[in-house]
Amino acid sequence: MKPTLLFLAALTFACSATAHAEAPKIDSIALQEIDGKDTTLRPFAGKVLLIVNVASECGQTPQYAGLEALWRKYRDKGLVVLGFPSNDFGGQEPGTNAEIKRFCTARYEVTFPMFGKIRVKGPAQHPLYGALTGPMAAFPGEVQWNFGKFLVGRKGEVVARFDSEDEPDSIALTQAVEKALGSNERP
To answer: What's the pLDDT tens digit per position in 125-172?
Structure first.
């Protein structure tokens, strides 16, 4: 094979491999619980996850009540709602982790798992959101506002994405959750 053809063949293979690469696995990404304990998403293996970037001073903040209701309705079937506070949109989550936890517990009786405040966009974006929104993600593109939602299936794959306007009790979100829960295949 001529050097030029060899180079083109290698380039074609490299591009093909890149195009077929999978999005990074999210279960091993380092996280912090809202109380400061180091963790990952591994404790939720085999569950359906609803990952939500949350904020306490947003017009969408009342969605905490809907998220809690969704969690209570479906947790025994395998759904876990996960809240990730972020101050990326209009400075609407200025509090500390302790203040956020107090607010969510007192105002909305949140019992679903909450994590430490992170960046969901920009140069300091947390790796979790890099995996959820990056070019290799199932639904690429930056989160546009607070209360964006990613639905992750039992095998750890993102199966749906919802914007902040999609309420936790919306038909589309509820149907997607029920469909994901109906898949009893474990990883």
So the answer is: 999 999 999 999 999 999 999 999 999 999 999 999 999 999 999 999
Q: How far apart (Å, rounded) are the C-alpha atoms in residues 14 and 2?
A: 18
* 65: Cβ contacts below 8 Å, ≥ 6 apart: 108
Residue 187 lies in a domain: no
The residues carrying an active-site annotation are 58
Q: Which residues of 20-29 are buried (b: 16+ CB within 10 A; e: fewer)?
A: eeebbebeeb
pLDDT at residue 110, rounded to an integer: 98
The number of folded domains in the chain is: 1
Q: Does 43 fall in a domain?
A: yes
Q: What is the CATH number of the domain that holds 34?
A: 3.40.30.10
Read off φ and ψ for residue 11, nearest 5 degrees: -65, -45
Range of the domain at 83: 24-182
- Other C-beta atoms closer than 10 Å to the C-beta of 114 total 21
Dump pLDDT digits (tens) for 29-71.
999 999 999 999 999 999 999 999 999 999 999 999 999 999 9
Give domain status of residue 92, yes or no.
Answer: yes
